[in-house]
Specification:
This is Galactokinase. Its EC number is 2.7.1.6. Pfam families: GalKase_gal_bdg, GHMP_kinases_C, GHMP_kinases_N. InterPro entries: Galactokinase, Galactokinase_CS, GalKase_N, GHMP_kinase_C_dom, GHMP_kinase_C_sf, GHMP_kinase_N_dom, GHMP_knse_ATP-bd_CS, Mevalonate/galactokinase. By secondary structure, the protein is of the alpha+beta class. It folds into two domains: 201 residues, Ribosomal Protein S5, domain 2, CATH 3.30.230.10; 171 residues, Alpha-Beta Plaits. The chain is 44% helix and 21% strand. The chain is built from eleven helices and 13 strands. It has a six-stranded mixed sheet with strand order 5-4-6-3-1-13, with helices on both faces. A four-stranded antiparallel sheet has the order 10-11-9-12. The two termini are 13 Å apart. The protein binds 2-deoxy-2-fluoro-alpha-D-galactopyranose. 2-deoxy-2-fluoro-alpha-D-galactopyranose binds next to α5.
Amino acid sequence: MDIEKVRSRFIKHFDGKTGNVYMSPGRINLIGEHTDYNGGFVFPGAVDKGIMAEIRPNDTNTIQLYSIDLKDRVEFDIDDPEGPKASWARYVYGVAKEMKALGVDVKGFNAAFYGDVPLGAGMSSSAALESCFAFAINDLFGDNKVAKWDLVLAGQATEHKYIGVNCGIMDQFASVFGQEGKLMRLDCRSREFAYFPFNPEGYKLVLINSKVKHELAGSPYNDRRNSCENVVKQIAAKHPENKYETLRDCTWEELEEVKAIVGEEDYNRAHFVLGEKDRVLAVCDALEKGDYETVGKKMFETHEGLSKEYEVSCEELDFLNYIARVNGVTGSRIMGGGFGGCTINLVKDDIYNKFIADAKVKFAAKYGHEPEVYPVVISQGSHKVC
Ligand code: GAF
């Protein structure tokens, strides 16, 4: 990312002084989609694209923000009960509130920021924004005393309370805890995690962005979560002797028992989640053995499930998945919440160029625009740049 881009705008739009610069990344996820809020496992890593912000306390109670990408300026009082209207500024407002609730004496500041993580591409640009400000506020006003996990939870609470997306913890976790060259297997229930060095010899990991925009707040993301919770509720009602918190606690047999009660749609959604929960663990085993064929096979299975059972795909993403399949790509699937955005593809080096060229030509011929291609660089999580 470009420090000069942030610095020049910060100086121009505020009082000419410089501040501290922070960066938080977006994320990829190898496998484990919609499992985080179901108490399951995910397998993300941070990428080399994200949000960069320059910030300086201003000795008032006013937060003054300048979005370089939107060329928009917003300011609000830190104790304003309503907060700003502009949705991009509400992320910062929510994070400031949550950091205050964690005991940090947050004061006013000036901030300019920009992002190079594509918006609405399923690479978690919003978690990058939240993590960047949570990390910076902790550094500037909290002596870095707030634990990393609390920064993750502050970002998630911002989504829930100030944006209206009832997301899990995967995106903020990856943005805060990411390490260069390593994926992370996270147990979203216990919050235990392990770093996995990821450097598949002879393969490349690449994102292909359909440029179909998803908007989680306006999308049926929360509706998917409600379906999962409904299935858990029905299973719990049938088995009062057991404790069920999330779909993680439910078995295939128990799901079959409530099929008629919950209806086809909720059944299909829960069916996908139970399968996905197993796939993440299978992929971890396969990775430990260097068995990339199995990793890829599971990725294709996830795509099928996300498309047909969870119903979070779209025509364009199914087409990109099809192109990957016919080109002999090892694994390909929708990445992130769905409803648009990217596919993530595990591709053998020797077919990489042909696959990318074919995807561009065929996609453009069908949809009138070329998809964007981002080779994945697994990078460091949130940090202070200078
Ligand atoms: C979005 C959410 F923010 C995550 O918490 C996760 O549920 C993901 O969709 C799907 O795996 O990115």
